[in-house]
Fold this sequence. Notes:
Elements (H helix, E strand, L loop, with lengths): L12 H10 L10 H18 L13 E4 L10 H4 L2 H11 L10 E4 L38
Antiparallel strand pairs: 1-2
Amino acid sequence: MIELGLTMLELANEHQQQLDEQGYTILLDIIDPDWLGRLRQAFDDIHAAEGADAGKEVSQIEGVRRLADLVNKGEVFDGVYVHPLLLSAVWHILQRPFKLHSVNGHDPLQGFGQQALHADWGGERGTGRFRVVNSMWMLDDMTPDN
């Protein structure tokens, strides 16, 4: 990654332990307010521009505003998949070279919540080495109530 000009930040011991024991961690406040506003606006603009075709590259789901292939739909999304803390977390989990599969947007509409979480991996789960790491970037406030 360093050869590509990407950097990693030291992942705090607390986050490493959570990844090891719980399988996930929450990295708070890594999107500054300006970037957050630009991410939200870009999502809305792209979704409006694509209209009925939004998300077709992957799938469309009733009650969800979907976008796909965000890697190629605006530089504003670049910071998501090259964020140093994300790269450090992925390295901590996989412990070997890795590549990006995709960056997609998923916005459940009111009344269509309770979306199932899943790994984009069709193989058996079993024991052994992990093959996929998913990250979720919340552009709206997330609480137990919503």
